[in-house]
Amino acid sequence: MDNTISEFQQVTDLTTNGVGVDADAHPLVAHRPRIHRAIPGRLWTGTIGGARAVLRLPDKSFWNGKLMIGATPAVRNEFSLDLLLSDIVLQKGYAYAACDKGTPQLVLRNPTRQMTEWPENYRKLTEVAGNCVEQVYGTSAEKVYISGVSNGGYITRVMLERFPELYDGGVEWEGVLWHPESRHLLTCLPVYVEQFPVYANWRGDRTDRERNQALEHLVEAGLHPDSHPYWAQYFMMYWIVSLWLYGRNLDPDWTPFTAEWDNAWLQDPTPLLYPWRERQGVLKARIEAIANTGRLTKPLLSVAGNWDCLVPFRHNAQAYASLVAEHGAGAFHRLYEIHRGNHVDGMLRTNRGDQQPVHPYYEAALNYLEHWVEHGVQPPDSGKYETVGAFAANMDLYTRAPERLG
Q: What pLDDT sits at residue 4?
């Protein structure tokens, strides 16, 4: 396709107050960020490369001279970051672009489609968005940042590793670590799927010894023991379907993964008890093509909850920080461990318990990235943070006093 776009729609408000809230955006946040004003500008949706994309360009009087690329999570669509990221950065004056990585919904169940498509689709998105900025405003963006969550966090990392010339820095929240020598989703999820029914005593005849052993296995696979009240919710919502979908794509020769989705697995996961240790050779070969390297040359701030029940902190956020350090790139990276933060803030609306939203920390990290890149102000040191006040001090955050979602 041409690297410019001409058929933009002029709209009176680019925020979700004007364009609405997509169903894929709603589950990612506990609260809707505050919107202080309408942001008029140009809107475009369509296909860039192999992915569905959205571009939002504020009117010139609102534009701050910068471009934010939103890296979408999981298999969600191009609108999935509208509440989590777009509403925030649009109000700060950013131009914004995001895409669905080319594999929305259940596209990855087709083994001919691969996660290797993701970086190329994001490279094309970034280039086209940059060209559109220059076309509309008459000048190129002064700064280009990338930011995303979960597998969008992986995208944020991998784009900074592979295409640092395209970006000035990034922020990632709970990024998935894909690396052939590390624990990853297809070595952790099988443990959760097998051991949780034992720990929860689904059959009703498990001994205390069996349940304690199951707990040890779950913790060894990365789950924080204090997050146990939320394991059942994640089992039903994420563990089984994620194992099946990513397993089907990364190990299509394991026969049970070739079956179509079956809701019966939520009551009896026995058919999906994946022998991940035996399949390590297969997984290593497939994951090498998508692996993070940790070779950063541009600033990256990482935010992750230590109660994450899907992408466990130790085997993802912490392991990636170690990978960066191993390659001597630690000066470009910070890792902020958010105490009692889980994977999906939206699930706090129905089952909050002792969890806290990570969204405000993420927004604060976006601000710290700007200060670091644009003014040379060093961000906070890596470490554990227990309150937003301790991390963000007196920042005026759109996520700090939000409007509740319905």
A: 67
d(CA 373, CA 146): 13
Start-to-end CA span in the chain (Å): 40
Residues 6+ apart with CB under 8 A from 49: 1, 99, 102, 120, 121, 124, 125
Q: Are 255 and 373 in a shared domain?
A: no
pLDDT for 254-267, tens place per residue? Answer: 999 999 999 999 99
Partners of residue 171 on adjacent β-strands: 147, 301
Q: Please, which residues have CB within 8 angstroms of residue 376's CB and are 6 or more apart in sequence?
A: none
Tens-place pLDDT, residues 80-99: 999 999 999 999 999 999 99
Six-digit token string for 244: 């099946």
Count of domains observed in the chain = 2
Summary count for the chain: helices (H), strands (E): 12, 12
Interval 167-194 mean pLDDT: 97
pLDDT above 70: residue 212: yes
Please, where are the H alpha helices in 200-302?
208-220, 231-234, 240-250, 280-287
Whether residues 170 and 301 fall in one domain: yes
Question: pLDDT at residue 226 above 60?
Answer: yes
Q: Which of 245, 217, 237 is nearest to 108 (CA)?
A: 245
Q: Are residues 320 and 278 in the same domain?
A: no
Same-domain pairing of 153 and 26: yes
| Residues 147 and 18 grouped into a single domain | yes
Residues 14 and 131 reside in one and the same domain: yes
CA angle (61 as vertex; 58, 64 as ends), nearest 5? 70
What's the confidence (pLDDT) of residue 104? 80
Give, in degrees to the nearest 5, the angle at Cα 251 between 77 and 221. Answer: 85
Distance CA 60, CA 41 (A): 8
In the numeric block, which tokens belong to residue 176? 């998935």
Domain boundary among 226, 254, 287: 287
- Read off the amino acid at residue 268: D
